[in-house]
């Protein structure tokens, strides 16, 4: 699966109707709704949209015939194997009716072209874990985590005896990293069982 590296927009004129697509990465349903609200044009005839965040997806035809706008936009997202993405396609009517087939091609085509115009980032599975290390082991634990590609330190807090490190580990290497930390601290570090989440490749 992939997501967009950054937001992008694209404009096409199809039989005198002006179509403007805006696509961007979104982390949640709320973020998707905010993107759609920010990039819908009140003066336009239609602001049709679709978004996908994991297993949840929504789409809207915004007054176009049912199934001719929102669904083709969502299909463009899914065909490119994208996730955590929202797309708005705005139409200013140019006076020529496109018919159902023409609308499906126009909305789906403009959305797909917009999505292809943005660089993609692979979504990698990561595992979030908590490492509790003593002060005597802390520098070594930090150094070992820093030496592994794809490890992200999400936060660090201190206790009377040491530190609590929250880290996201690449799922493919999580068990080896846990074993490495256990070995270098001779078992003194306490490590929570990793929980799988989605993350993006750097």
Automatic annotation (TrEMBL):
Single GO cellular component term: cytoplasm
Molecular function GO terms recorded: guanyl ribonucleotide binding; ribonucleoside triphosphate phosphatase activity
Residue stretches making up the UPF0029 domain: 133-188
Every Impact N-terminal domain range: 15-115
GO biological process terms on file: regulation of translational initiation
Cross-referenced PANTHER family: IMPACT FAMILY MEMBER YIGZ (PTHR16301:SF20), IMPACT-RELATED (PTHR16301)
Family the entry assigns: Belongs to the IMPACT family.
Name the UniProt record assigns to this protein: YigZ family protein
């Amino acid at each position: 699966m992939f997501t967009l590296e950054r937001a992008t927009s694209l404009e096409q004129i199809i039989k005198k109707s002006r179509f403007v697509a805006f696509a961007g990465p979104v982390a949640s349903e709320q973020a998707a709704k905010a993107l759609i609200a920010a990039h819908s044009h009140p003066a336009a005839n239609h602001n049709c949209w679709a978004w996908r965040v994991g297993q949840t997806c929504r789409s809207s035809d915004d007054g176009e015939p049912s199934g001719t706008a929102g669904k083709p936009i969502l299909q463009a997202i899914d065909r490119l194997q994208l996730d955590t993405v929202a797309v708005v396609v705005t139409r200013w009517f140019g006076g020529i009716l496109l018919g159902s087939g023409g609308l499906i091609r126009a909305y789906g085509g403009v959305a797909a072209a917009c999505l292809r115009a943005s660089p993609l980032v692979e979504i990698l599975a990561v595992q979030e874990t908590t490492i509790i290390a003593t002060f005597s082991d802390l520098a070594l634990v930090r150094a070992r985590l820093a030496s592994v590609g794809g490890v992200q330190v999400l936060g660090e807090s201190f206790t009377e005896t040491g530190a609590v490190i929250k880290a996201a580990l690449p799922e493919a290497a999580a068990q080896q990293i846990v074993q490495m930390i256990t070995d270098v601290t001779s078992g003194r570090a306490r490590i929570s069982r990793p929980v799988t989440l989605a993350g993006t490749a750097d």
